[in-house]
Amino acid sequence: MNKCPECIKEGKTSKFYPSQGCLSTLMGYQSYYDEQGEYHKHDPNTKSTSWRCSNGHSGVTNKRDSCWCGWGKDREMVESITS
């Protein structure tokens, strides 16, 4: 993400400042190659990045990965916004 989702909703422009770090849950997983030699990465962890914008909005974006095979496809990115 490189734009403030609240400013987009409000039809405004702003400078967007993502945090310099990222937090991640620490659930273990093992990637693997299937019977056809295709690589699978089924990472169940959530990566959280905080951000703020020049209009005073701030929030946290939680990103969850999915695999090309469809695993985790229903795991959407979630934004928690505070003003």
What features would you describe in this structure?
This protein has one domain. The mean pLDDT is 88. The longest helix is centred in the first third of the chain and has 6 residues, at 5-10. The radius of gyration is 16 Å and the shape is elongated. Strands 1, 2, 5, 6 and 7 form a five-stranded antiparallel β-sheet that branches. Strands 3-4 form a two-stranded antiparallel sheet. A hairpin with a 5-residue loop joins strand 3 (32-33) and strand 4. It has 83 residues and is mainly β. It has one helix and seven strands. It has one helix at 5-10, and strands spanning 16-18, 23-24, 32-33, 39-40, 46-53, 58-64, 78-82. 7% of the residues lie in helices and 35% in strands.
Query: Whole-number radius of gyration?
Result: 16 Å
N to C succession of SSEs: HEEEEEEE
Shape: elongated
- Characterize the largest beta sheet: strand count, sense, and whether it forms a barrel: 5 strands, antiparallel
State the total count of DSSP E strands.
Answer: 7
Total separate domains: 1
Can you give the helix content as a percent range? Answer: under 10%
Structural class: mainly beta
Mean pLDDT: 88
Rounded to the nearest angstrom, the distance between the terminal CA atoms is 18 Å
- How much of the sequence is in beta strands? 25-35%
Poorly predicted residue ranges: none
> How many helical stretches?
1
